[in-house]
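HUMAN: Please help interpret these tokens:
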Amino acid sequence: MDTRRLEAFSDGVLAIIITIMVLEMKVPHGADFAALWPLWPVFLSYILSFVYIGIYWNNHHHMLHAAQRVNGAILWANSHLLFWLSLIPFATGWMGENHFAPVPTALYGVVLLMAAIAYWILQWALMREHGHDSLLTQAVGADLKGKLSPLLYLIAIISTFFQQWIAQAIYVLVALLWLLPDRRIERTVRSTGSDMNERRERP
């Protein structure tokens, strides 16, 4: 089975997740800027979560672009990732509505942590299917950011019960680390494609 249906299904789910998040932002009962002020925590939470969903969409796309096929384990691993991502709207709304209180902020970190673990499982399942010498395995490499992110999430979850701003800073920091698509895969796919084209052009 190729990756096209899996990618199309995942794209649809991620689009729905973003739609649900924006619908959670209730229209204020007022026609001046003062009416918008109480919504700032919800809006900031929405921005952060929107960036995270965008990050997962970008890197998910790049990862599947480097893959050639999927199996049953990969399909379930992908569903596992989408499950945790689908909880982001709830965690986002709860954290924003309660002005970044400790427990909602910790839950937000738990969802991000589980999503990161789920992404690692999906990545591992794809590499296992394609082998150690595959394009995907070469592109992933040591995956330092993938190993660092769960550790930072754990620190953020613990810090919510002492200093909430530390947790928020860590969530933003991890988002900044992943803001651009994973260039390792993109560079590997491009270079491999160039090599294949050169071989085709040779007499």
User: Anything to note?
Assistant: The chain has nine helices and no strands. Residues 2 and 68 are 6 Å apart (CA to CA). Confidence is low (pLDDT under 50) at residues 194-203. The two ends are 33 Å apart (CA to CA).
